[in-house]
Amino acid sequence: MLAVQQLESGYGESIILRDVSLKVQPGQVVCLLGRNGVGKTTLMRSIMGVLKARKGLVSYNGKNLTKKSPGFRAKSGIGYVPQGREVFPQLTVYENILLGLEASSGKIKEIPADAIAKFPVLPAMYERRGGDLSGGQQQQLAFARALASRPEVLLLDEPCEGIQPSIVDDIRDVIRSIKEEGQTAILLAEQSLDFVKSVGDYFYILEKGAIAWEGGLEALSDEVIMRYLTV
């Protein structure tokens, strides 16, 4: 479904990612792990096209997206919840979610009830401005906005960062429900090992901008964790 092959990317003269390859299959929750500063967000931004790849290939359902715009990728079926959420502070909650519909290229005219059902606190906040919400509420809003277009692949970059435990639990439940429905694959970049182990099917570990390890949950041993993830 989503494939990255020998990707090289970075900022200015700095190369952050080197020769990165990974795959996300339909219905999977694939988790991207690594210490701070190893390139997880750079990889997410490169997959979405926010950051241009210098070398390599990003493909989706067999189509080469490497030189396509973020908007094209979104309309192709890739949703994105960036690190820091990036809600529009002056727009209402309702208007923020409506913007997510643009990725459907007009195929979806109204906010899908099933997307909002995953975040039952949001309808009561429809008239509030996005910038007035708490961090956890903004995270739920960004998540709902991405789901509004019914993407086939969802990129989640550090969704638990700075979020209170109760909303972390809510986000875990949403990811599990998406996984059970089997309609949307997820690529999840996250620092919390306990969180990713509770939802993930397959794992990649980044170290110094390259894939240092990959495997299933049963292979994510204490030795691997000590070597690549322990600070």
Q: Count of DSSP helices?
A: 8
Helix content: 25-40%
Order of helices and strands: EEEHEEHEHHHEHEHEEH
Number of DSSP E strands: 10
Derived from helix and strand composition plus strand pairing, the structural class reads alpha/beta
Question: How would you sum up this structure in a few lines?
Answer:
The chain is α/β, with parallel strands linked by helices and 231 residues long. The protein is built from 8 helices and 10 strands. The radius of gyration is 17 Å and the shape is globular.
Written account of the structure:
This protein is of the alpha/beta class and 231 residues long. It folds into two domains: 1-40 and 52-68 and 201-231, 3-Layer(aba) Sandwich (Rossmann fold), CATH 3.40.50; 72-186, P-loop containing nucleotide triphosphate hydrolases (Rossmann fold), CATH 3.40.50. The protein has eight helices and ten strands. It has helices at 40-48, 70-76, 93-100, 113-117, 135-147, 165-181, 193-199, 222-228, and strands at residues 2-11, 14-24, 29-33, 55-60, 63-64, 78-81, 153-157, 185-189, 202-207, 210-216. The strands form two sheets. A six-stranded mixed beta sheet has the order 6-7-8-3-9-10, with helices on both faces. The protein has a four-stranded antiparallel beta sheet with strand order 2-1-4-5, with helices on one face. Helix 3 packs parallel to helix 5. The longest helix has 17 residues, at 165-181.
